Every structure is written in C-alpha cells, then in structure tokens.
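Now read these lines:
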Amino acid sequence: MKYVYLLESVNHPERRYTGVTCNLKQRLKDHNAGKSHHTAKYKPWKLIVGICFADHARAAQFEKYLKSGSGQAFANRHFW
C-alpha cells in the first residue's frame, strides 16, 4: 500500500507539502522530527489528508498530478 499525503505547517499555514510513502504514521513523525530537508524549516506539520492506493504506480501518478498546476487547483478546492 502507498499513501499520497498532504501536510500543512502548524506555524506557517501557507506552507504545504505533498508526498508519497508506504508508512504514513512514521513519515509524519519524520517530517516533525526535521528529518526531511524540504520540511524541517516549517515544522511542526499536521496531516490534512492521506489517500491510500493499492497500486504503487497510481500513487506516484496522483502525487505528480497534485504537484501540477491543475492538481494544485484540485487540492485547493477539495482539501485545503
């Protein structure tokens, strides 16, 4: 199973992060522990949504979509 997840910084709510992982709980802990170079500066993070995929390729595709312009518009309408 793969999870596509969206995070929002608690202290800087304008900062958002989209990622993919196979262990969502541990990945959120890692972000909040500062183990990710891209998110360490804006910790702590809260989980906005996690979407589970059985197919790893579809998860990667959806993450890529969410990082595109139309995917960001979709996320703004449905998740933020």
Observations:
- Helices lie at 24-32, 56-66, 69-78.
- DSSP finds three helices and three strands in the chain.
- The radius of gyration is 12 Å.
